[in-house]
Design a protein that fits this description.
Length: about 140
C-alpha cells in the first residue's frame, strides 16, 4: 500500500479522523484524507497527545472518504467486527510527504500540533507515529 511514488512539498489540506475500534483487540484507526481516499493506520495504543510518546502505526487498506463519518457496529462474521466510535476528528495540513515519511499538522479536538509518521521497516506497513516538539520562536 504505497503512499505514492511522488514526493510532495506539502500544503495539501484535508480531513482526518481517529476511530476507536473495539474489535478482537482494542485499537485506534488513524485516517488521513489523501489521494481521494482515507489512508489508514491501525494504532494499537491511544494516539499520542504530547511529544515524547511514540506509537506503532500499522498501515492497513485505504478506506473510502465517507468512512470518516462512520460510527456503529460492524457485525460478527465481517472483517473488523466490533464497535467503532469517533475518538477525534478535524482537519490537517500536509507539510511533507515521501514514501517513508509524512509530516502533518492536526487540528482536532484531542490531537493538535505537528505529527510525524515514519516508516521504520522498509517494504512493510510498520510506521512510527509521534507528535513533534514545537520549536520556540
Amino acid at each position: 500500500m504505497p503512499l505514492g511514488s511522488e514526493a510532495s512539498r506539502g500544503g495539501f489540506e484535508g480531513v482526518f479522523v481517529v476511530q476507536k475500534h473495539t474489535a478482537t483487540h482494542l485499537h485506534y484507526d488513524l485516517r488521513l484524507e489523501m489521494d481521494g481516499v482515507l489512508k489508514s493506520w491501525a494504532v494499537p495504543k491511544e494516539p499520542p497527545t504530547k511529544p515524547g510518546v511514540r506509537r506503532l502505526a500499522i498501515q492497513v487498506e485505504d478506506h473510502p472518504l465517507d468512512y470518516a463519518d462512520f460510527e456503529g457496529v460492524i457485525p460478527e462474521g465481517h472483517y473488523g467486527a466490533g464497535r467503532v466510535e469517533i475518538w477525534d476528528r478535524g482537519t490537517y495540513t500536509l507539510k511533507e510527504r515521501t514514501d517513508d515519511k509524512l509530516v502533518f499538522e492536526l487540528r482536532g479536538g484531542k490531537l493538535k500540533g505537528t505529527y510525524c509518521l515514519i516508516r521504520f521497516k522498509r517494504d512493510k506497513g510498520n510506521w512510527l507515529f509521534f507528535k513533534k516538539r514545537e520549536s520556540s520562536p
